[in-house]
Amino acid sequence: MSIITDIRTAFSRDNSLHKLLLLNVLVFVFLVLAKAIMSLSGVGAYFLNVARQFQLPSDLPSLLRHPWTLLTYAFSHLEFWHILFNLLNLYYFGALVREYLGDRRLVSLYVLGALAGAVLFLLSFNLLPTLQPMVGLPLLGASASVTAIIMAAATLLPDYTFMLFLLGPVRIKYIAAVVILLSVLAINQGNPGGGIAHIGGALIGFLFVKQLQAGRDLGRPVQAVGDFFVRLVTGRPNLRVTHRSAAATAAAPAASKAKASATSLPGEDEINLILDKISHSGYESLSKEEKQKLFRASQK
């Protein structure tokens, strides 16, 4: 019971990155246990029916029977090294995206990466003559979503540095380039579906940040759908009426001014000081407020 309580507590917190990580782990544990139990029970052949409820089929008739797999495939893994690699990347790059863009945009990016990878995967297998003989192969794993997050982080902060084992400091724009190269190699080395889905995720990650810098949030439809289902499950109304005291009403203009000041674009001198700090001490030395100011300046 304590495990269930811990899981419920984790999902009640506001950290969306932890929720994404935990959801991937829970689905992995469920699939692994289901496969083991069914194999020991002598009905292992029927596990394929369980897997079909999670993995994305490449043939359209199967997709019409399992439309939810457009998303469930991005939370499902069957191999330990597959989920480990994906979750490590999600943890490090997701933390960076969350710090800059917030929880809601991180989740939106994860979902959009999954959908973009699924769409490109389905189009390729059903339209490209060289792949049509392979129609029937399913897609499984969070790689498309994770690649979208990696590319978004590299587009947002190309010179941010990660310390890699044996390699030392490496800018994430080069990490993203290697990820894309590996995705292209996968197409030629027996995993065309995975490689194509990764490229779809990378494209949406790049576009997501570029459109955000132009003042357009591609994640708003995802957030709207998510809010709808949250209201449906929790029963919360769209609008909440509150009564404020006279003191709170009097403080409202001051709060509005403070909010406007916090969200205003930083001046050129302020940005120059931040850039000087980066050149002397590195990007990691910036405070959260300085990072947010630098991002707002990039939207000019």
From TrEMBL:
Belongs to the peptidase S54 family. GO terms for molecular function: peptidase activity. The chain crosses the membrane at residues 21-48, 68-94, 106-128, 134-157, 164-187, 193-209. One of its GO terms (biological process) is proteolysis. This is Rhomboid family intramembrane serine protease. It comes from Hymenobacter endophyticus. SUPFAM superfamilies: Rhomboid-like. It comes from the Bacteria. PANTHER family: PRESENILIN-ASSOCIATED RHOMBOID-LIKE PROTEIN, MITOCHONDRIAL (PTHR43731:SF14), RHOMBOID PROTEASE (PTHR43731). It is found in: Membrane. Pfam families: DUF6576 (PF20216), Rhomboid (PF01694). Residues 66-208 form the Peptidase S54 rhomboid domain. Residues 268-300 form the DUF6576 domain. Keywords: Hydrolase, Membrane, Protease, Transmembrane, Transmembrane helix. The keyword Transcription does not apply. It is a multi-pass membrane protein. Its EC number is 3.4.21.105.
